[in-house]
Amino acid sequence: MKNERELRSDIVEVCKHIHAKGWISSTDGNVSARLRHDRILITPSGIHKGFMKTGDLIIVDNKGGHVSGKGKPSSEMMMHITCYDERPDIGAVVHAHPTLSVAFSVAGVKLAKCLLPEVVFTLGSIPTADYAPPATDEVPDSIKKYIKDFDAVILERHGSVTVGSDVFTAYNALERMEHVAEITYHARQLGSVEPLSGKQIARLQEIGEEQGWPKRKIIHDSCNECNACNKFSPQRNQTPVDPGCDNRGQVAKTMITNPSEEVMNMIVNEVVASMKS
Hints:
Layout: H1 4-21, E1 30-36, E2 39-42, E3 58-61, E4 66-68, H2 77-86, E5 92-96, H3 99-106, H4 117-122, E6 128-129, H5 138-147, E7 152-155, E8 159-164, H6 167-190, H7 198-210, H8 222-225, H9 259-276
Parallel strand pairs: 6-7
Antiparallel strand pairs: 1-2, 1-5, 2-3, 3-4, 5-8, 7-8
GO molecular function, one term: metal ion binding
Keywords: Lyase, Metal-binding
GO biological process, one term: pentose catabolic process
């Protein structure tokens, strides 16, 4: 296990990576690492993560009480503590605002269905937690049912939370999740999106087991947890835009004439509507 000095350096390095990727801006986002069972090293509130130094980090106990360091701990501290409480196996938590992952949640599109073989090995399904106002106790409550089984969870209209054995593993989960969102976005523009079948997923899990990789949980009730195979719809829980979409979330052959233009129009309409509400 790494010592405190090493963990401070790791957190600062990962924060710089996340900021450079454009997945947080200014004082957004937060990262933490478990020092021991009752101590957590976490980023402070109100500091630019791209310029943060190792001495800026704060230590809190497992109830959120301040132990050492200047300033206030992250406003999302209780979300981190919830992750550690639910997952004694993890050593770090990363909260960021990855662009496409969040954009999909704003558009009402979930990404839980497995589209890429690598995701079956590395993440499993990527669920989306219901919307909760940032910096409230509703955020940790919204992720409880998912974080027990999944290393990457999208927070609707907010961001994401990823966990891992250490800071870099939690960051890797974030990077993989956003990569899935990026490929899904482009695939939906080009044509219909076919998820991996149950048989294909089972075979991939067998391969993963043979290679000694941990088995990742897959959400098989895809229509309730994922609609990444549907065309963009400006409103959640609406009948899919394409009436040819069957109950497995697969799109029929009829495609939109200009998918890129229609996708952008629908996203713009969604954002405008949310600003008016």
